[in-house]
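BUG-434 | component: ligand-complex export | severity: low

The export step for zinc ion jobs runs without errors, but we want the raw record kept on the ticket for reference. Input record follows.
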Amino acid sequence: MMLFRGFRMVKKICIFSIFIILVFALYLNNSRVELTRSADAAGGIVKSATGTAPDRYVYYPGTENLSKNEIRVVACGTGMPASRKGQAASCWLMEFGNGDKLLFDLGTGSMANVASLMIPYQYLDKVFLSHLHTDHMGDLAPLWAGGWTAGRPTELKIWGPSGATPEMGTKHAMEGFLQYVNWDKVTRSYKITPIPGQLKVTEFDYKAVNKIIYQDNGITIRTIPAIHAGDGPVSFIIEYAGMKIVFGGDTVPNKWFIEHAKDADFVIHEAMMTPWQWVTFYNQQPQLAWRACCEFHTSPEAFGKIMSTIKPRHAVAYHFFNEEGTRYGVYEGIRSTYNGPLSMSTDLMVWNVTPEKITERMAVVPEDAWAVPGTAVQPPPQKGLPSPMTNEINSGRWLPGFEVQDKMLDKYRDQYNLQKQDWRPKMYEDLKKK
Ligand SMILES: [Zn+2]
Ligand SMILES: [Zn+2]
């Protein structure tokens, strides 16, 4: 009897152990799936101590071919209107397999990120503005002037929405921009060459629903109205190689987005911080905080609801300072209403989008990036432009400060065969005349 009871005990222990082993095996199997996935993402094992490493989790700009049916999206700004060293305001670079590169928004601080990708400026000449808040267009100046000084041969092309009145539209804003930078424009036009300092502005109807505003080289862009702080803001629907990317400008949940962003491959949409976070971190008054998050922007809960309704292949949340104090609250809000693929974006996050798969990585960029030359050559200085400097100022040049450079500049002149362009004889003649 004792023996039989002992046998039953052993049997029980055996069954229990098998159960434990099964659970453990299942767990191991699952973690192996995770590990395999990670290894795939990292590009596999390093096979040689002296050879190159396979792909990492990171993207090194300028080292990767794009296939014809591929779009690379780089977050060059994902933050807020208040400046922050670690996170610029809204800016999205889309690089297409056909060679085109389009910028969507150019918010305050974002050009440093764009420049760190070391893309020749000849390719960065098209900007699409979702609306005219400065956190979406505040860095136009460094692209306009920086690109001009670093090789862009053409004018800068801007697409942006109209407004309820002409004064609230993109044309008016860009005319005002050119007034603001007039001194810069006139002096650079004289010293460098004038064409790259010009803007070509295309203002489209902000009220149009799913109308084409751009179609070229296999890329089609449509807009739908957004609902934000006033009439004007839009969202962009970008189609290429059978794929649809939607970039939401600042907006509250709106019917046009639900209808036209449905089943998109890749959807970027704002997800604001919680009202408590606005109060705690952004020093907003409580009466403003809950309007800012949830009346003229989209809350995390609402972002999730939008995504679980339109069901994109991949959703990207932005427009919140992404840090320890905020990201969990924003994430929890989103996850309370959406359980699909999601990126909590921050600056220099990179996605490669193809019909087959979407990968997310971080770009690794230098702090001190130089502008990289492309094939384009800027037009020479334009002759006959009036000098923006009077003789009164010009003749104040101190001769010894110039003469001391002569030996060095002679060497340079001879090296580059600039005898005909030597500016010194005329300057010395003028200075000696006075
Ligand atoms: Zn805005
Ligand atoms: Zn904004």
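Assignee comment: Attached the raw record above. Residues 301 and 336 are 7 Å apart (CA to CA).
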